[in-house]
Amino acid sequence: MWFKRLFSRRRLFAEPSEEIREHLEEKIEELVASGMSRKEAAAAARREFGNVTLIEEDSRAAWRWPSVEELLLDLRYALRQLRKNPGFTSVIVLTFALCVGVNTVNFSLADAIFLRPLGNVPHSGRMVRVAGVHSDGYHFLIAPANFLDFQSQSRSFASLEAYIEASHDLGGDSAPERLNAAKVTSGFFRMLSAAPLFGREFSPEPQFQTGNQAVILSYNLWQRRFGGDPKIVGQPVRLEGQPIIVVGVMPRNFDFLAATQIWLPLALEPSDLNDRLTRRFSVVGKLREGASLHQAQAEVSGIAARIGQSYPGPERLVGADIRAIRVSDHVKTYFLEPANIPWLPRRTRPEGKPARAPDE
User: Fold this and answer.
1) Which one of 78, 170, 330, 352 has the lowest number of neighbouring Cβ atoms within 10 Å?
2) In the 3-class helix/strand/coil scheme, how is 3-56 assigned residue by residue?
3) Does 202 have pLDDT greater than 80?
4) DSSP code, position 228
5) pLDDT band at residue 147 under the 50/70/90 scheme
């Protein structure tokens, strides 16, 4: 009913005016009947009746929704102005459409990158990152010996692995190229349920040996640098001037640490077994089925407290923090890498220039 009244304002506003005129005419006729002329009777009736326009406005106020009507009036005025200026109208419409499109893309990306778990990792909702809380502050990286304690003592994780992001020079027939690398522990790919497209993953043995004995290529690097040749598996490539055997190629949809172009085994030296100060391991894990984030948090906090008590010092471990892994943890640098954008120049090292030492 109110909706019908809203769009019948002209008829509703006319009814009080007609009623007022009828009362006025009745008064005039009454005065004429008493002996006055019609002109004198009309003037006397108006004086007695009062300000007719003001009475009409007061009567109409009972039927109004001021805020709604003012909004409609503003909209009608705006539409009239836009119709009078088609060029300006086109600019406004295009600007509005562009803003809507940009915001839609932004929210879609934010949802896909920052809110959702990893898309190509089975059971990605169970993937977490473990960070250390030290006496000198919060750190995402963990010392090797502390990681080994977490790995051996925790029971809430189906797997707990570590990696180090680095960079290496790739030599060969083409110009030397600086590549993004990740050094990973032996169970890293099994934790992610990620099998190489060709070849195999790293065997457990190299984890406690020094040096790089094998390398796994990303799909994009394999296609771009080696022409997608499956025979590259088992062949050596030169990293930092040293021959390294290619043992596998990751599939196209493997996007964990998306900017990584080569994968190397994380070699632990004997000194790492007692190193609790050099914080250089990024630690990720997969919760056991049925284990909650709260349970895992309580467990690693207890392990960290025991480590801190057993190995006191100015930078001792006093706690740990667990957070769910999102896509944003691993894709944020992908589109900034020249190797992933065809029209950007690649990072190469001139022939004859000595290779830089590997980043650890």
Assistant:
1) 352
2) HHHHCCHHHHHHHHHHHHHHHHHHHHHHHHHCCCCHHHHHHHHHHHHCCHHHHH
3) yes
4) T
5) very high
